Amino acid sequence: MTDPTTAPAPGGARRPRGRHRHRAIATTLTLTGLGAAVLIASLAAGDITVPVPDVLRALTGRGDPLTSAVVLTWRLPRALLALALGAALGLSGAIFQTLTRNPLGSPDVIGFNTGASTGALFVLLTGAAGYTRTALGALVGGLATAALVYALGGRRSTASTRFVVTGIAVSAILTSVNTWLMYGADTSLATRAAQWTAGGLDALGWEHAVPALVALAPLALATPFLVRTLRVLELGDDVATALGARVVRGRLLLTTVGVALTAVATSAAGPLAFVALAAPQIARLLYRRTPGISLLGAALAGALLLAGADWVAAHAFAPVQLPTGVVTVSTGGAYLLWLLLGPGRRRRKG
Questions:
Q1: What is the pLDDT of residues 180-234, one digit of tens each?
Q2: Most buried of the four, 61, 268, 292, 305, by CB within 10 Å?
Q3: What gap in Å lies between CA 65 and CA 11, rounded to an integer?
Q4: Beta bridge partners of 14
Q5: What is the pLDDT of residues 19-40, one digit of tens each?
Q6: What is the pTM of this model?
Q7: How crowded is residue 253: how many other Cβ atoms within 10 Å of its Cβ?
Q8: Cα separation of 104 and 111, whole Å?
Q9: Contact predicate 109/271, CB 8 Å
Q10: Nearest-angstrom CA–CA distance, 115 and 178
Q11: Is the per-residue pLDDT at 4 higher than 50?
Q12: What span, in angstroms and rounded, lies between the C-alpha atoms of 20 and 141?
């Protein structure tokens, strides 16, 4: 009888499956612990430094009034949003990179993030303030962009170079549209929109955090039910159809959830580039024995990336605060170069 803790390996050897499971659990716990550490560091650092024990007392309701106000009212909404929005972007990136079977197939590269920005800008530049309206504009813009990219480049399958290249082209066009919208707007509205497009969490409080977290909750709960569909689609449309999957419906549901995750993050903090691109690949590197991209790993890596970038933006150049989007773009550009040049360099060495 076969040992249930082992699985066949190439060449007929046996390798312990339990060891891979333990590695995945250890990696998950490590990412979770690092995310908690960045959260505590974000709550402790600032113009008013709060010692870590006082931060913990405030979080458990035992802090003094001043410390509780600093930690719970001023800093906690931003810190929670950094983690939640980063997780949403990482999850969205994992969905689209799996659907396209391409490490460049993330929403910020193939135009969905830019389309969400276009929808949100239409709302912002009409003076219609409010998170709900901005979120709806971002969702409509993202879904419309996804439909356009699919119609132009992915009628047969999203897993094609044409689909990714079409998304990049649409993203470039929409970037020009966004610039034109701001140039033609009223000066005060254009200034506000320009600050928003830089991407940042510095002005966000509970009035922004609560709607965003409420919007993300059902999307996060729905994602596990779509994992099986995502894994089947990863095998290719023909194989998925042979296995009885409803390919068109499954792709539509996954695209809707992925765009919605991006739209919520974009409407709350503006466009935050490269988090959705890098987080799934970091998860693939860390969860090496997991088939495909680990959705949980991508969410945890995205949360850690954005929370870390926000901490750097807020404190690394104090007293100057940078937009968080500037940090994600700077680090993401270097990552993109590594992603593009790394495989070729490894092949040359081989």
A1: 888 877 888 888 888 888 888 887 889 888 989 998 999 888 888 888 888 877 7
A2: 305
A3: 65
A4: 8
A5: 677 888 899 999 999 999 999 9
A6: 0.86
A7: 16
A8: 11
A9: no
A10: 9
A11: no
A12: 41
Residue 255 pLDDT: 87
Q: Which long-range contacts (CB under 8 A, 24 or more apart) does 330-339 make?
A: 331/274, 331/278, 332/273, 332/274, 332/275, 332/277, 332/278, 333/274, 335/274, 335/277, 335/278, 336/274, 336/277, 339/103, 339/104, 339/277, 339/281
Q: Give the pair of three-digit tokens for residue 9.
A: 């390996």
Tokens representing residue 50 in the block: 């709060």
Tokens 């802090």 belong to 63
3-state secondary structure the chain: CCCCCEEECHHHCEEEHHHHHHHHHHHHHHHHHHHHHHHHHHHHCCCCCCCHHHHHHHHCCCCCHHHHHHHHHHHHHHHHHHHHHHHHHHHHHHHHHHHHCCCCCCCCCCCHHHHHHHHHHHHHHCCCCCHHHHHHHHHHHHHHHHHHHHHHHCCCCCCCHHHHHHHHHHHHHHHHHHHHHHHCCCHHHHHHHHHHHCCCCCCCCHHHHHHHHHHHHHHHHHHHHHHHHHHHHCCCHHHHHHCCCCHHHHHHHHHHHHHHHHHHHHHHHCCCCCHHHHHHHHHHHHCCCCCCCCHHHHHHHHHHHHHHHHHHHHHHCCCCCCCHHHHHHHHHHHHHHHHHHHHHHHHHHC
Q: Say if residue 128's pLDDT is above 50.
A: yes
Q: Are 125 and 193 in contact (CB under 8 A)?
A: yes
Measure the CA dihedral 243/249/250/251, to 10°. Answer: 120
Residue 343: is its pLDDT beyond 60? no
pLDDT tens by residue, 34-85: 999 999 999 999 888 999 999 999 999 888 889 999 999 999 999 999 999 9
233 vs 159: CA distance, rounded Å: 10
Question: If you search the block for the tokens 């060495």, which residue do you land on?
Answer: 349
**Cα–Cα distance list, 239 to 29, 95, 298 (Å):** 34, 19, 25
